[in-house]
Amino acid sequence: MSNIQLPLQVESRRMVMHNLDVLYPYIISGTNAYAIQKMNQQIMNLVKRLIIEQGYYQNPQTTQVYGSFEIKNNQRGVFSLNIINYTYIYQHAHGMTITKSLTFDIQTGKVYELKDLFKPGSDYTKVLSEIVQKQIKEREIPVIEEFKGIKPDQDYYIADKALVVYYQLYELAPYAYGFPMFVISVYEVDDIVKEDGPFGVMIG
Protein backbone atom coordinates (compact mmCIF):
# COMPACT_ATOMS: atom_id res chain seq x y z
CA MET A 1 0.00 0.00 0.00
CA SER A 2 1.62 3.21 -1.13
CA ASN A 3 1.60 6.30 1.05
CA ILE A 4 1.63 8.43 -2.09
CA GLN A 5 -1.93 8.03 -3.25
CA LEU A 6 -4.31 10.65 -4.58
CA PRO A 7 -7.80 10.81 -3.05
CA LEU A 8 -10.70 9.06 -4.71
CA GLN A 9 -13.10 11.23 -6.67
CA VAL A 10 -16.55 10.82 -5.13
CA GLU A 11 -19.95 12.24 -6.04
CA SER A 12 -23.28 12.18 -4.22
CA ARG A 13 -26.08 10.10 -5.65
CA ARG A 14 -29.66 9.88 -4.48
CA MET A 15 -32.19 7.09 -4.05
CA VAL A 16 -35.73 8.47 -3.96
CA MET A 17 -39.00 6.60 -3.41
CA HIS A 18 -42.21 7.32 -1.52
CA ASN A 19 -41.20 8.46 1.99
CA LEU A 20 -37.55 7.67 1.22
CA ASP A 21 -34.72 10.04 0.31
CA VAL A 22 -31.22 8.62 0.69
CA LEU A 23 -27.94 10.26 -0.34
CA TYR A 24 -24.99 7.92 -0.81
CA PRO A 25 -21.42 8.22 -2.12
CA TYR A 26 -20.49 6.95 -5.56
CA ILE A 27 -16.81 6.61 -6.49
CA ILE A 28 -16.08 7.75 -10.04
CA SER A 29 -12.28 7.68 -10.29
CA GLY A 30 -8.99 7.55 -8.41
CA THR A 31 -8.10 3.87 -8.69
CA ASN A 32 -8.58 0.86 -10.97
CA ALA A 33 -11.98 -0.01 -12.43
CA TYR A 34 -12.26 -3.32 -10.56
CA ALA A 35 -11.72 -1.69 -7.15
CA ILE A 36 -14.15 1.13 -7.98
CA GLN A 37 -16.87 -1.36 -8.96
CA LYS A 38 -16.24 -3.49 -5.86
CA MET A 39 -16.35 -0.51 -3.45
CA ASN A 40 -19.47 0.98 -5.03
CA GLN A 41 -21.21 -2.40 -4.83
CA GLN A 42 -20.38 -2.79 -1.14
CA ILE A 43 -21.52 0.77 -0.39
CA MET A 44 -24.83 0.10 -2.14
CA ASN A 45 -25.24 -3.23 -0.34
CA LEU A 46 -24.86 -1.45 2.99
CA VAL A 47 -27.29 1.34 2.04
CA LYS A 48 -29.91 -1.23 1.00
CA ARG A 49 -29.33 -3.37 4.10
CA LEU A 50 -29.96 -0.43 6.42
CA ILE A 51 -33.18 0.45 4.60
CA ILE A 52 -34.37 -3.14 5.02
CA GLU A 53 -33.28 -3.32 8.68
CA GLN A 54 -35.18 -0.14 9.48
CA GLY A 55 -38.41 -1.65 8.18
CA TYR A 56 -39.10 0.60 5.22
CA TYR A 57 -40.30 -2.12 2.86
CA GLN A 58 -42.66 -3.59 5.47
CA ASN A 59 -44.74 -0.43 5.43
CA PRO A 60 -43.53 2.36 3.12
CA GLN A 61 -46.76 4.31 3.62
CA THR A 62 -45.99 5.08 7.29
CA THR A 63 -42.20 4.68 7.42
CA GLN A 64 -39.98 7.63 6.45
CA VAL A 65 -36.28 7.10 5.73
CA TYR A 66 -33.67 9.81 5.18
CA GLY A 67 -30.05 8.91 4.49
CA SER A 68 -26.75 10.75 4.29
CA PHE A 69 -23.04 9.99 4.45
CA GLU A 70 -19.77 11.39 5.76
CA ILE A 71 -16.32 10.77 4.30
CA LYS A 72 -13.90 10.39 7.21
CA ASN A 73 -10.65 9.52 5.42
CA ASN A 74 -9.67 9.74 1.76
CA GLN A 75 -5.88 9.63 1.70
CA ARG A 76 -2.89 7.26 1.66
CA GLY A 77 -4.86 4.55 -0.12
CA VAL A 78 -7.50 4.30 2.63
CA PHE A 79 -11.12 5.35 2.15
CA SER A 80 -13.26 5.40 5.29
CA LEU A 81 -16.87 6.59 5.42
CA ASN A 82 -20.07 6.57 7.45
CA ILE A 83 -23.51 5.75 6.11
CA ILE A 84 -26.22 7.37 8.25
CA ASN A 85 -29.90 6.45 8.03
CA TYR A 86 -32.70 8.10 9.99
CA THR A 87 -36.10 6.42 10.14
CA TYR A 88 -39.36 7.73 11.54
CA ILE A 89 -42.44 5.51 11.82
CA TYR A 90 -45.77 7.35 12.00
CA GLN A 91 -47.07 7.93 15.56
CA HIS A 92 -43.83 6.75 17.23
CA ALA A 93 -42.38 8.98 19.97
CA HIS A 94 -39.17 9.66 18.02
CA GLY A 95 -37.19 8.45 15.05
CA MET A 96 -34.23 6.10 15.06
CA THR A 97 -30.82 6.63 13.48
CA ILE A 98 -28.33 3.93 12.49
CA THR A 99 -24.73 4.68 11.53
CA LYS A 100 -22.48 2.09 9.90
CA SER A 101 -18.98 2.48 8.49
CA LEU A 102 -16.85 1.02 5.72
CA THR A 103 -13.07 1.30 5.46
CA PHE A 104 -11.53 0.27 2.13
CA ASP A 105 -8.17 -0.50 0.56
CA ILE A 106 -8.69 1.56 -2.58
CA GLN A 107 -6.33 -0.59 -4.67
CA THR A 108 -8.27 -3.83 -4.13
CA GLY A 109 -11.69 -2.72 -2.89
CA LYS A 110 -11.22 -4.85 0.21
CA VAL A 111 -13.22 -3.86 3.30
CA TYR A 112 -11.04 -3.82 6.40
CA GLU A 113 -12.35 -5.38 9.57
CA LEU A 114 -11.18 -3.92 12.89
CA LYS A 115 -8.76 -6.84 13.38
CA ASP A 116 -7.01 -5.96 10.10
CA LEU A 117 -5.69 -2.75 11.67
CA PHE A 118 -3.55 -4.63 14.19
CA LYS A 119 -0.71 -7.11 14.23
CA PRO A 120 -1.77 -10.77 14.10
CA GLY A 121 -1.96 -12.22 17.59
CA SER A 122 -2.11 -8.83 19.30
CA ASP A 123 -4.81 -8.58 21.94
CA TYR A 124 -6.29 -5.49 20.30
CA THR A 125 -9.71 -5.87 21.93
CA LYS A 126 -8.13 -5.77 25.40
CA VAL A 127 -5.99 -2.73 24.57
CA LEU A 128 -8.85 -0.79 22.98
CA SER A 129 -11.27 -1.79 25.75
CA GLU A 130 -8.94 -0.35 28.40
CA ILE A 131 -8.73 2.95 26.51
CA VAL A 132 -12.51 3.09 26.04
CA GLN A 133 -13.10 2.22 29.72
CA LYS A 134 -10.81 5.07 30.73
CA GLN A 135 -12.65 7.51 28.47
CA ILE A 136 -16.04 6.39 29.81
CA LYS A 137 -14.86 7.21 33.31
CA GLU A 138 -13.18 10.51 32.39
CA ARG A 139 -16.15 11.72 30.35
CA GLU A 140 -18.67 10.41 32.88
CA ILE A 141 -20.69 8.63 30.20
CA PRO A 142 -23.90 7.21 31.71
CA VAL A 143 -23.68 3.59 30.55
CA ILE A 144 -26.87 1.51 30.48
CA GLU A 145 -25.05 -1.49 31.97
CA GLU A 146 -21.53 -2.32 33.08
CA PHE A 147 -19.00 -1.93 30.25
CA LYS A 148 -17.69 -5.36 29.28
CA GLY A 149 -15.24 -4.30 26.58
CA ILE A 150 -15.45 -3.77 22.84
CA LYS A 151 -16.44 -6.52 20.43
CA PRO A 152 -13.87 -7.93 17.97
CA ASP A 153 -16.00 -6.47 15.15
CA GLN A 154 -16.84 -3.18 16.89
CA ASP A 155 -18.13 -0.37 14.65
CA TYR A 156 -15.25 1.94 13.72
CA TYR A 157 -13.87 4.35 11.18
CA ILE A 158 -10.49 5.94 10.48
CA ALA A 159 -10.09 9.72 10.49
CA ASP A 160 -6.51 10.71 9.62
CA LYS A 161 -4.31 9.62 12.54
CA ALA A 162 -7.23 8.58 14.74
CA LEU A 163 -9.27 5.42 15.09
CA VAL A 164 -12.84 6.10 16.20
CA VAL A 165 -14.75 3.19 17.73
CA TYR A 166 -18.41 3.85 18.42
CA TYR A 167 -21.69 2.42 19.61
CA GLN A 168 -25.21 2.58 18.23
CA LEU A 169 -28.07 4.34 20.01
CA TYR A 170 -29.10 2.41 23.16
CA GLU A 171 -26.15 0.04 22.76
CA LEU A 172 -24.00 1.59 25.50
CA ALA A 173 -25.71 4.75 26.74
CA PRO A 174 -29.25 6.20 26.87
CA TYR A 175 -30.85 7.52 23.66
CA ALA A 176 -30.39 11.14 24.70
CA TYR A 177 -26.60 10.66 24.77
CA GLY A 178 -26.49 9.89 21.04
CA PHE A 179 -23.73 7.78 19.52
CA PRO A 180 -20.92 7.27 22.06
CA MET A 181 -17.67 7.74 20.11
CA PHE A 182 -14.17 7.07 21.37
CA VAL A 183 -11.24 8.68 19.57
CA ILE A 184 -7.98 6.73 19.81
CA SER A 185 -4.76 8.19 18.41
CA VAL A 186 -2.58 5.90 16.32
CA TYR A 187 0.30 6.84 18.62
CA GLU A 188 -1.63 5.48 21.61
CA VAL A 189 -1.60 1.98 20.13
CA ASP A 190 1.36 2.11 17.76
CA ASP A 191 3.01 -0.93 19.37
CA ILE A 192 0.20 -3.22 18.13
CA VAL A 193 -0.75 -1.42 14.90
CA LYS A 194 -0.01 -3.34 11.71
CA GLU A 195 2.54 -1.13 9.98
CA ASP A 196 1.34 -1.78 6.43
CA GLY A 197 -2.32 -1.88 7.43
CA PRO A 198 -4.89 0.90 6.94
CA PHE A 199 -4.14 2.51 10.31
CA GLY A 200 -0.38 2.03 10.23
CA VAL A 201 0.03 3.95 6.96
CA MET A 202 -1.37 7.04 8.68
CA ILE A 203 1.85 7.34 10.70
CA GLY A 204 4.45 9.47 9.03
Question: Your description of this structure?
Answer:
The protein has a five-stranded mixed β-sheet with strand order 1-2-3-4-5, with helices on one face. Strands 6-7-8 form a three-stranded antiparallel β-sheet, covered by helices on one side. It has helices at residues 33-53, 124-139, and strands at 9-17, 20-29, 63-75, 78-89, 96-105, 156-159, 162-166, 181-185. The two termini are 14 Å apart. The longest helix has 21 residues, at 33-53. The protein is of the alpha+beta class and 204 residues long.
**Low-pLDDT runs:** none
Tell me the Rg in angstroms: 18 Å
Q: Could you state the oligomeric state of the chains shown?
A: single chain
Helix-strand sequence: EEHEEEHEEE
Mean pLDDT: 94
Approximately what portion of the residues adopt beta-strand conformation? 25-35%
Strand order of the largest sheet: 1-2-3-4-5
Number of helical elements: 2
Q: Major beta sheet, specifics?
A: 5 strands, mixed
Query: What would the principal axes of the Cα set say about the shape?
Result: flat
Distance between the termini: 14 Å
Query: Which class best fits the helix and strand makeup?
Result: alpha+beta
The helix fraction, in percent, is 10-25%
Number of DSSP E strands: 8
